[in-house]
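Students often ask why we bother encoding 3D structure as a string. The short answer is that it lets us treat folding as translation between two languages. Here is a chain of 100 residues written in the first language.
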Amino acid sequence: NDDGSVTLPLIEPVTITTRKDGKVRERTFESLTFFRLKGADIQAIAAASKENDTVVTFARSTRTMQAVMNAVFDKMDAADIVDGGKVINHFLTSGRRTGR
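And here it is in the second language, the structure alphabet:
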């Protein structure tokens, strides 16, 4: 994307049901948009338990609320999880070089 983010179309869309202020809402995710991680994101990931660090990483990179990402991640196809991991890894291992 023009802003440097990467939009990953999901092989299998995910629909979750959320409740807010007494209203029930159904949301369908057909894609996830990943952004480069910042220092605060790295700290939040490092503070997460080993069982939750992948979901926290996805939540921070997609700028999605943790509770929403928990529900989405639980329903995601394994291939979509692997592809999302590849996008995040790309952000961690590449980017514009600075300095020198």
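Translate back mentally: The helical segments are 39-47, 53-62, 66-75, 78-93. Keep this in mind for the problem set.
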